[in-house]
Amino acid sequence: MGEWAQCRSRKASSSHGWSAYGGQVLGAYYPQQDPSGSSSGSAVAVSIGLAFGSIATETSGSIVNPAERGNVVGIKPTLGLTSRDMVIPISVRQDTVGPIGRTVKDAAYMLSAIAGKDTFDNWTSTQPFDVVPDYVKACDFLGLKGARVGVPRNGIDYYLDSSTNPVMVAFEQALQTVRDAGARVIEEANFSSFDAPSFARNSSIVLDTDFVGGLANYLASLSTNPNNIHSLSDLTHFTKADPREEHPDRDTYVWDRQLGRNLTSSSLESFMAYQANLRMGGKEGVIGALDRHKLDALIMPTFASFHLPAIAGLPIVTVPLGFYPAQTPLTMNLKKTMVSVAPNIPFGLAFVGRGWSEEKLISLAYAFEQRTMIRRKMKPYIRPTFELSDQLEPTEETPYKLKVQYRPPVNDSPRFGQLVIQKTIGRLFLVRSWMWSILGFQQSLL
What we know:
Elements: E1 18-19, E2 23-24, H1 40-47, E3 53-58, H2 64-69, E4 73-76, E5 96-101, H3 104-114, E6 148-150, H4 153-157, H5 165-180, E7 184-186, H6 196-220, H7 232-241, H8 253-261, H9 268-281, H10 286-292, E8 297-301, H11 307-312, E9 316-323, E10 331-332, E11 339-341, E12 346-352, H12 358-372, H13 414-430
Parallel strand pairs: 6-7, 6-8
Antiparallel strand pairs: 1-2, 3-5, 4-5, 4-9, 8-12, 9-12, 10-11
């Protein structure tokens, strides 16, 4: 995962998927590919077959963006569907934990296993059900039949540039696939207000004020703290002094800004920014468009899909849509260290919905996936040679060796898959360490 979920440096000073602990993660579809982020490793591990699924976190795009660049499926759940207990927080008002999988069904198995109420995260108490839905049952080949999906063109057009042309060609083809599957596509299902500079400015205030207090609370909950770091100020000093952090080449611009605000998450300015974003993302944004046109979901290219759901706490499912064509010119990231756009790099299609509508979104995404099988049309240029069973023996730092031996599936039922995942996640929770990869025991259920 990108260090501090990319919440440390200005974009031109950092790179997706880099951390002082793990180094630089690279995407698998082009040499020196930018994996996107911040849940970079979660997506790449799945994309090259190290795991059938992984756990990721999203504040704004950090599940769906790396999922699309890895040619895999990502589910960004409704805020409150999954617990964030002991996840290092960026914003308690935006952070969510969700699965990345090779297929929609793989991701659905995982979501069924990790969703639910948790007394250590009171946001989960807002769930409108006591029993978590079986999201695997939502995987319906006929899921698009009779559905109404809308295209919010003004929320897409804002982000268009020359690099998105191939994506939009594939997007228009996808809309026809959706129509052919029996759905009605409502064009110009626009947001009544789409002021990107305003909601970006508000999000900056919300995230900055949430992170300062949230980080202090997280650090106070640790049983050990060997570097005696108790606040963002302490962390900034530590980072600037430790050569592994590559400062000042990778700056602390975001942290410096956060400390300079001298505001708390309970301040009036933070409250008003959050309320404005809820309105822009909800009634003036996603919810308003869904209600006005009586839609089941919005359909968008993934690159344009995540901004309003992030600020309004709404769900997204992204599935593979296509790949940049052979003659695509290379585009580098802002730091000029990785390739952001190039031939064969994948991009995705997103379904966006109301809060708690994951079953509907999974049904739509699965129906599209099954008709297109985009993931199978391009292979990573690199394949792993490392076997999970080759991991080093336990040490004081990693006392729990994770060893996986492949076994053919003995039961293909949803409940079996959920039990496998729950058992694996349970072992991780026992040591209260979120190791954001779930190691697979069964073949793809695609």
